[in-house]
Amino acid sequence: MKKIYLTLLAFVLCYSFSFGQDLVCNNSILVSIDGCSGELTADNLLENPDDSASYVIELWNESETTLYGSSSDGTLNFDSLSTNVFSLVDRDLLYKVGLGNNYCWGNITLENKGNNFEVSCTNDTIACTDPILVNEELFYNYNLPTYDNDCYDIEEVKVINVTFKAGACSDLWSSGVYERVIEVTNTLGQTATCTQSFYIETPTFEIFDEPGDIKLDCSESDN
Description:
Number of strands: 12
Radius of gyration: 32 Å
Low-confidence stretches: 1-19
C-alpha cells in the first residue's frame, strides 16, 4: 500500500450533543499523496478514536454539495472515490466522521507528492528501406513514449513536430536524422512532452565475386 503522510496544522473541537460518544475532529488537515492511492482513517481524523468502533467517513467538496466517497468501516480508500483522487489535489475539501447519531467535521486539503506526470521517449535506428518512412500512419505510431505511473489513464498521444536533419537516403556517405516531438495528455488534462531521434541508416551491399562462365550442353534432351 502506498504511503500517506498527514500533517495536522491546527485543531478545532466539533461536538455532537446527542447521547453516546462525543466525537472531536481535527481540522485543517494536509494530506500528501505519495503514490497512486491511500486512505483516510479515524486515526487520522479524530482525537482519541475508539479502535473498536466502526466510524462513517465521508469526503465532500467545500460547500458539501458533492460527495466524493463514503465508508462505514472507519477507512475511506482513495481508489473507491467517485473521481480520480488527483483531480482533488490543492482543493479545499470537507470530511465528516460519524458514529450513531454523533458526527463531527473538518477541513482537509490533498497535495500531490512525487506524482508529476512524465513520459519517456527512446531513440531508434531505421533503415532507409523501412516502409515506416513512407507510411505516415506507421511512422506516427512507431516507438511511442512510455510512462511509469499507473495513477493516470492516457487520453491522447500526438506528434506535434517532426524535423528532418542532415543527409538523405540517396547519400551513401551521410545518414539522416528525424527528430520527433510527442505530446501525451492524461485523463486529468495534464500534458507532457518528449523528443526522440530516429537515425536513418543507409543500406550497405555485400560485394561478391562474379562466378565464371557456365556452359550448358543442349545437344541432348530427354523425350
